[in-house]
Amino acid sequence: MQRSPIIFSVDVEDWGQSVxxxxxxxxxxxxxxxxxxxxxxxxDADARGTFFVLGKFARKHPRVVRDIAAAGHExxxxxxxxxxxxxxxxxxxxxxxxxxxxxxxDILGQQVQxxxxxxxxxxxxxxxxxxxxxxxxxAFDSSIFPFxxxxxxxxxxxxxxxxxxxxxxxSIVEFPLTTFALAGRRLPxxxxxxxxxxxxxxxxxxxxxxxxxxxxxxxxxxxxHELDPDEFRRHAPVPTWGTKxxxxxxxxHQGLGRRGFAAKxxxxxxxxxxRSFAQARRGQPSAAETWLVDHRPPGLPRLPRTPAMPNxxxxxxxxxxxxxxxxxxxxxxxxxxxxxxxxxxARESV
Length: 350
Ligand SMILES: [Zn+2]
Prior knowledge:
Blueprint: E1 4-12, H1 15-20, H2 29-41, E2 50-53, H3 55-60, H4 62-70, E3 74-77, H5 90-108, E4 114-115, H6 128-135, E5 140-141, E6 162-167, E7 170-174, E8 180-182, E9 185-187, H7 192-197, H8 200-213, E10 219-222, E11 240-241, E12 244-245, H9 248-255, H10 261-271, E13 272-275, H11 277-283, E14 288-292, H12 322-325, E15 336-338
Parallel strand pairs: 1-2, 1-10, 1-13, 2-3, 4-5, 5-7, 6-14
Antiparallel strand pairs: 6-7, 8-9, 11-12, 14-15
Helix pairs in contact: 5-6, 8-10
The protein binds zinc ion.
Zinc ion (ZN) binds next to loops.
């Protein structure tokens, strides 16, 4: 079977601490589930992925972090405490990122290159986070879901990988989570509950369709606890996590599709080459540039909103470079803008 590359990513966290209450201690379940994930991936000697590891988890289970790296996968940062960005200001966010990067560097002996925000919480109002990440030395981010979500997402963010220019010589590569165009809408089915519920062959079919229609590799995401169908049963007869009760709706919603998830990953492995973001940065064509104009250099006026094309993708701008053109433009608008020169970054390939 001809296999196409997709980026395989795992958010390594403890379910109760990350989903239920960030003040809870890290349990041992997640460590076991990460080892299950590594075992499953080892059935394809060529499969690689990026594991965004929570700093709190890494501090408790440093050996598991080393196991991930020893198996040939990329380790990146999922922040330290799993507090969504809308509950942090830029300086508290910076200290969370810095703390996580330091814990991981201490374990691995080298700096991590990438970041994923808890609950995909880089949204329109927290785009300042990209500048903080670049200032903290991170080369890429994969936190933005380019769709109109209730809790997260930026509806008009480009669906392809972008070199995001932040002004002042700073930039970061953004790998948006993959959405699927259906009936004129972008749907976030590249992971989570959607991926757990869709049949494996249908999920593979949808990913193949995205591989064919885009130039950057689609991004799949999952969590170690999705391999663990018995997570809630272990807390019987009264389901609690620590002292927190887990209501039936939460158990039902969070447990759906877990029993078949290992088989689903095996199906995806049959259809695709799993790749890490590190491999994507080396192996993909150069990414087009996007300027984040809310973080433009001082004195650069705000740009007008970019009209959307029928499929929801922004219209590529025309004319001379944005920096040259921006002085002509005034008024409010979208926080980002494609490089109007239409050129791709020659120096910094992704
Ligand atoms: Zn998470």
